[in-house]
Design brief:
The protein is α+β, with helices and mostly antiparallel strands and about 90 residues long. Helices cover about 30% and strands about 10% of the residues.
């Protein structure tokens, strides 16, 4: 079983104004060595090529985010969720 964690309770107020790359670094540093927590890797590069691999693997899709985007709840032009049509 896996859970997706985008933030921790204390982090939103502290990190809201920081860019995505800084927030990821801080969150990753909070994971203790040997913990049973998997931190998702960023996949910088050509979004179309990455999506093609995700689609071919039968995964649900991907979320693309701007590295310089700051956190804000709700919809934003700083991120885009793209679903695969070939799932399953």
């Amino acid at each position: 079983m896996a859970f997706e964690v985008n933030s921790v309770p204390w982090s939103e107020a502290i990190m809201a104004g920081l860019p995505l790359v800084d927030r990821r670094d801080i969150l990753q540093a909070t994971i203790p060595a040997g913990a049973r927590i998997q931190f998702s890797e960023a996949l910088p590069g050509d979004a179309k090529a990455i999506f093609h691999l995700i689609d071919q693997a039968g995964l649900e899709g991907m979320v693309s985010k701007r590295n310089d985007s700051v956190y804000r709840s709700g919809n934003s032009t700083a991120w885009l969720k793209t679903k695969s049509l070939h799932r399953g």
